[in-house]
Amino acid sequence: MYLSGKCLLVCPEVMGGLPVPRSRMEIIGGEGLDVLRGKAKVVDIDGRDVTIECVKGVRAAVHLAEKHRIKKAILKTNSPCCGKGCIYDGSFKNVLREGNGILTAALEERGIKVASEKTRG
Question: Counting C-beta atoms within 10 Å of the first and last residue's C-beta, which end of the chain has fewer, N or C?
Answer without folding.
Answer: C
